[in-house]
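Table 4 source record.
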Amino acid sequence: MEDTIVAIATAVGKSALAVIRLSGAQAIPITNTVFKGPNLEKVPTRTVHYGHIVGDNKILDEVLVTVFRAPKTFTAEDVVEISCHGGVFVTTQILELLLEKGCRMAEPGEFTKRAFLNGRIDLTQAEAVADIIDAQTQSSLKMANIGLRGDVKDMIMRFRNQLINMIAKIEVNIDYPEYEDEEQITAEILKPTIMHLQSQLADIIEKSQVSAILKHGIKTAIIGKPNVGKSSLLNALLREDRAIVTDIAGTTRDSIEATVNLGGLVLNIFDTAGIRDTTDIIEKIGVEKTKKIIDQVSLIILVFDYNQELDNNDEALLKLTKNKERIIVVNKQDLKKRLDTSRLPNHLLISSFNEEDIIRLEEQIRSTCHITDLANLDNTFIGNARHIAKLKQAYQSLGDAKTSLNNHQPVDIINLDLRAAWQALGEIIGETIDEALVHELFSKFCLGK
């Protein structure tokens, strides 16, 4: 990290403003060589200065330059941000000029990576930066901010401190048995602490499914025979006419993808081709694609027509989806009843053209996904798959320690399991983590962040 990096920190395109960010020991001197205005090497930290960027004795743009001096910056290095006009050409010209003067183009996520490597933030906070950028709902944004302010790190550190206290006492007993006044660590002392830690981890792991849904959304498929109102239902959930709706069966030949936000719960919805026996080659391809989608999604909205009797295709759909999380919807309740609803378990009777019915369906979706009061989100709601995997490792190691205790194994064997749990938790916050994994994590960030 000896070199000075630079990147465009805002989205590239035509806009009012763009920001070019530099970080490193030469960030201020390099900017000073192209800036016509106050001497940036003499200005105080956290100040903004008006001037021009000049290259080959020509003014490229009128800018504002903000100077941040180490160590109280995002990367803990000297940082400069140039606010210029947002044209693609002028922004690129300034970037190329800074590269010519000695900067290196930043890799994706390298500014945040430097913040992590310089001890400015831990790995959970770094990942929370990406989560804030990717947030689609108020709930996912709230979880990301909980991580960014360090609450997740503090929780993990508390777990690790409890473990290291046990480990230290065990090792004192092993290495210095002559210290008679030192507390002797026994199964009766270890077991309650291990069980308490396991219980706390189990609570977080149990919530992880809900947390992941809040963060990433849930893949949902609207399934049914042709002309039962699947596309009308999609349009109703979206509150817009996204899918083509006609009275002609088989209008939807391919799946349509859309995203809907149900008050903090994102549904990634597939409106699929109707499933039925058909000789139409194109429709048949759509039906086969629908069957594949059923295997990929987490939630199915299975739609039936109030105005049609159940047939073999309906029975096949019930069988095809019986082992999936599903909501059975009987649509078109405004028409004459021909469907024997007693044959459909726990169904919801609606009309896709009735707003109150759609609200009831949304409530049913949230209930089925176990999404209730989003105001209760705290640092125990962790939706990061890497974090959950490491928590499960720690939970398993504590389970192994408990088994060893029950089998009256010596404390040095139990100590190995406790150390494994401590190590797994350390990988969450980045205290014990492989360099290749760090590179992989930050490579997924956007350029300039």
